[in-house]
Amino acid sequence: MTGIRLGVDVGGSATKWVLLDETGAMLDAGSTPTPRAGPAAVIELVAELAAQSKEPTAIGVAVPGLVDTASGATLFIPNVGGDWAGFPFTERLAARTSTPATVINDGRAFALAELRQGAAKGLSEALFVVVGTGIGGALAVGGRVLHNRRDNFGAIGHMTVRPNGDRCTCGNRGCLETVASARALATKTATAEQVAAAAAQGDPTSARRILRAGRELGLAISSTLAFLGFSTAVVGGGVAGALPQMLPAIVAELDDRTAMLGTCHVHPGALGPHAGAIGAALWTLEGP
Ligand SMILES: [Zn+2]
């Protein structure tokens, strides 16, 4: 790795960033609210972060949606405000900052970070699931994170788990994302954070809500591991602090359903809330 890399993870509510040195070690990190005005405003934010950084030699940005990996244009980013369809993101960012730039789906960024530096370090194959405002996913095979033209390889969040369920941001009904994301955990009167906090304090209704989401997640992960013949899943993302409470239900579903695969492991992400930003920075080295 040559030079300092800026990695930025644009989330539905917060944008996280890291600076990595030549060895991939973190020099600095931070978080700021995501601008709601769309891609041009996000580019201004990234340019500000780059200006405050120590002249990064490359900038990697992770976004929660589809990108054209060949051109660096954004395609479909439903959880961030503004019109992202067909926006020439890396071209505009590189021009604005005079720095080479790449863009990657946030699920793949999480996977790359956890594969190189975190819970899946040294593994050849694993399924990655990142649960936030929505649910992202990715696969590693042969020690590399797989990606395709629309950067939606492994998008487990849009697997249908309830045929007649709620409408998803993607247009489908009953996607995993509609039953197990932070948005799905929220109620009419409480945010996902408040539901998680109430569950931690013993409120049975909130605890049941989180348990149900954990089971749905576990079911989808079990089915996907069976389909792939993999035995390791890494689950990360904030889920508004509810992930530790969801993990036992995920593990229980796996124990029930994956006997054919031998011992399966669900590892929580090891890199914490900046995993996506770390992966975005690493993608400037490994990306197209
Ligand atoms: Zn969907």
From TrEMBL:
Pfam families: ROK. Keywords: Membrane, Transmembrane, Transmembrane helix. Gene3D superfamilies: 3.30.420.40. InterPro entries: ATPase_NBD, ROK. The chain crosses the membrane at residues 126-146, 217-243. PANTHER family: N-ACETYLMANNOSAMINE KINASE (PTHR18964:SF169), ROK (REPRESSOR, ORF, KINASE) FAMILY (PTHR18964). Belongs to the ROK (NagC/XylR) family. This is ROK family protein. The lineage of its organism: Bacteria, Bacillati, Actinomycetota, Actinomycetes, Mycobacteriales.
